[in-house]
Amino acid sequence: MATRPRTPHSPPRLPSAAPAALLLPLLLLGVASLAGCAMISHPYQLVDGTTVTDGTGLSLDAVTPAYALLAGGESVIITGTGFDSSAQVSFGDTPADIISVTPDQLKVAVPPAVIAGPVDLHVYTDAADATLSPGLWYFEDATGETGVIGFLKYNEIVGGYWSSTTDAWLSASITWTKDSSLTWWMIQAPGIEQCAADFSYSGATFVDLGSQGLSQLVLGDGDTNVTVPWSDNSVNFSLIGDPADFPFDASMDLAEIAPTGLPAFAVADIVRTPTSDFRVTSPAIESNTVPTITANPTIRWSGGDGDLVYIQISQLNASGSAYSQIVSCVATNDGSFTVPDLWDNWVMSRQIDVELTMARSSGGVLPTNHASSEIIGAWRKYGAAFAL
Fold this sequence. Notes:
Helices cover about 5% and strands about 45% of the residues. The protein has helices spanning about 25-30, 185-190, and strands at about 40, 50, 60-65, 65-70, 75-80, 90, 95-100, 105-110, 115-125, 130-140, 145-155, 170-180, 195, 205, 215-220, 225-230, 235-240, 250-255, 265-270, 280, 290-295, 300, 310-315, 325-330, 335-340, 350-360, 370-385. The strands form 3 sheets. The protein has a 15-stranded mixed beta sheet that branches. Strands 2, 3, 4, 5, 6, 7, 8, 9 and 10 form a 9-stranded mixed beta sheet that branches. Strands 20-22-25 form a 3-stranded antiparallel beta sheet, with no helix packed on it. The protein is elongated and about 85 Å long. It starts with about 20 loop residues before the first helix and ends with a strand.
């Protein structure tokens, strides 16, 4: 067993705020850069809802849901008063087929549209007409693409190396994305079952929902709610919080949000968290005895019920003040992964920080445009070893 080369240092704590271009990687993995990633406001024009009636008893209250895909075909419910069998409906200039009519409700099939964004709802009867502006928001079909990305994570410092006891903490970072093929693992490594030295990612475009009047997101599973506030500093929803608020083995929903000038919506199953039996077995970073590690170690783990595992191996410099190099990998959750030797200079007896993150994918789909949630539920374990 190698001797300790210096006084153990306390592990770094993650910041509560960071520059927008760095926040996701800082909290997801601590090293990657999102250089070149952009932040945009919502791409649709913001408009105030107004209802126009002619005073004859015909009025419009709401459309539920207030969104549809450009292809149309979905059915929506129009609520109001004064409807009868003579009713005709159009969204913008396009007529809609009426499925059923009652005095206070119309069920209609949404017609197709060419351009995404809000349109007015018009209802005509033999006696009157009324307009709801905007009445419906059209979205491009984003099936199979990412609409929101981030994490809800339980962070834990493990093993006997550290100079003092460090409490666990909960962290979260969530941002909407311009629909794309971006996935969580793409920010961590070149691919699944792949590794890279000093990896960085660029190319994502994020949506600034804070400028749309959203102050927080609420994630809940029926027993536990986690509130993730908007951060102007990081330009996303972020949180450093109480680890007791992290629910293991949970499916969490996003409570309804209502961005300014956009339809209100909720998202079921937006994040799933790992089970509470995740253990790192090799190297034994969770033990009181500090393990040794080679330049191409085989990492082993068990439990967690995740889909992917993020592995980060970081070598400290001679003074112990910073990392001289970092190797990051994404592996399938099959219990074992051998990290290739990608080091420029592997130094014997040098301190090596070892991090494993068990990541469980979401099953959530955004109802507005059918985009997928890439918010992962994660359990991050951070320990130390010595280079062999």
